[in-house]
Write a structure and sequence with these properties.
Number of domains: 1
Shape: globular
Strand content: 15-25%
Distance between the termini: 27 Å
Structural class: alpha+beta
Strand order of the largest sheet: 1-2
Number of strands: 4
Order of helices and strands: HEEEEHH
Number of helices: 3
Helix content: 10-25%
Length: 92
């Protein structure tokens, strides 16, 4: 993606990754396990590698930087669909 979709991520131009893993797959950059409402964001699967940060405004922000679940090839193959809405509807 870094070559063919160079505008997809601002990190591509900086030659950086959002997660420290050798074979990072960016297909599910928007994680289907991420949920947000008016007071907080959260992880649908309560990943042990996730966490939360309370903002100055009181909003609880999900910190997904330690989680690589949606970037694993097996996970992507399991839930792959060309229709993004189908992926986001699935719960685990």
């Amino acid at each position: 993606m870094k070559v063919k979709e160079k505008d997809f991520c601002v990190l591509y131009a900086k030659d950086k990754k959002c997660h420290d893993m050798e074979n990072l797959n960016c297909y599910l950059c928007g994680c289907p396990n991420f949920r947000v409402n008016s007071k907080s964001s959260s992880c649908d699967i309560n990943s042990i590698d996730g966490g939360s940060i309370k903002g100055k405004d009181g909003f609880i922000h999900q910190n997904c930087s330690g989680c690589i679940v949606p970037h694993k090839v097996d996970f992507i193959k399991e839930i792959f669909s060309r229709n993004w809405s189908d992926i986001m509807k699935k719960t685990f």
